[in-house]
Here is the input.
Amino acid sequence: MPIRWRLTLFNALVMGAILLALGLSLFFLVRGALLSGVEDDAKSRAVTIARDVEEEPTDDWFDEDDVEALAVTGVVAVVRDAEGRILARTVESGGDDGASEPIWSEALESGQPAGGSAGLSRGGAAGYVYAIPVNPGQGPARVVETSKSYESAKQAVATLTNVLAGASLAAFLLSVGGAYLLAGAALRPVEAVTQAARGISESGLGRRLPVARKGDEIGRLAATMNDLLDRLEAAFSRREEALARQRRFAADASHELRTPLTSISGHARMLDEWALEEDPERAKSSAGAIRREAGRMRGLVESLLALARGDEGPPLEAGRHDLAAVAEEAAQTARAAADGKVTIEYLPAGRRVEATFDRGRVLQVASILLDNAVKYSLEEGRVKVEVRSKGDRAVLEVSDTGVGIPEEDLPLIFERFYRAEESRASGGAGLGLAIARQIAEAHGGDIEAKSTPGEGSTFTLSLPRVRPQKP
Here is the structure.
């Protein structure tokens, strides 16, 4: 069942219960008041007549004024003797004289007023009868008996019942209709949100749900859903970027692998067909080319394996080491590999900069940073390596005077499979810096880059001097 109908039904049940309770309460209250009024009229008239009977020795107790007053109120009065014979009565009292015998006889026997409901005629009309004994010990006994029909009260109750039923039914129908309209108005924003949500798809995450009123529950729900859509859109965007980088990496890796494989295949075929026997020098040159291309392939495969191992999270062989000594070793290796192309300067720290890390892995990071610095430096450029302590961190900094990195590429250079613009895409598969960041994060550290295009770049590796324990 739709929420609108459920709300309407709930409101109808509640309003129905309230109207029923109020109607029944009012019915019984008014009915009791009307019946009590009939009894009070009969009692008050009986008391008045009994006083007159007690004061007047004659049997003429009802004059025209008394009869008229009794007729207006609908009260019938009878004065009886001890035997029950009627001594006086109002004109309207014709009927079964013995219909109320139990009431007047009870009053005579007890000497106290008595009253109760009784039939007032053979036709079955019901009413209230009240009897008062007069002078039971001073002369002949008398009984004043008054009665009043319930008919007028019953008619008033019937009228009240019809009015209450009609008013309650009208109020119930109005409340149901109002609840239906109110529920529709309250749920209209939900329908708008539903329609808008149906139009949102993976390819159209830029759309947002309407927020009619930010302060109510539906507005807060729509705002929360919009925040979720923002996060989903950002996540899908990152996924698309990652997939694009992976596709580009697959193409680059295929090219990187195809080139050495083609070279190896060509040199191997040449060796097999004629070079070994006819041209030993050419054979030697081809063997060297095969070794170089195989080394190039091995480097690419090792980079992929390094990333895979990092994803699997193998335990680090951490110990207390001097980061300055690691930086100096990496600088010496890079200086030899640069072969004078650039100047590599190591600035001694002057003291040990100890930290807890895996020496081999951190040496790999330093080598990656230095290799990048040499690769992207201009001829006769300068690379500087520096190690220092900074609070509870050990910091290794590698700066160069190379081509620099565009500002839009800086946030992405540590992403795996990412390769910058052509000025920095001089070989490689874009895995070195991703490996460096992976190793830094595995140690609880971080790595960042600052660069000015055309002036150079600075890469900073920061490691905690005491590696935090995993919870």
DSSP finds nine helices and twelve strands in the chain.
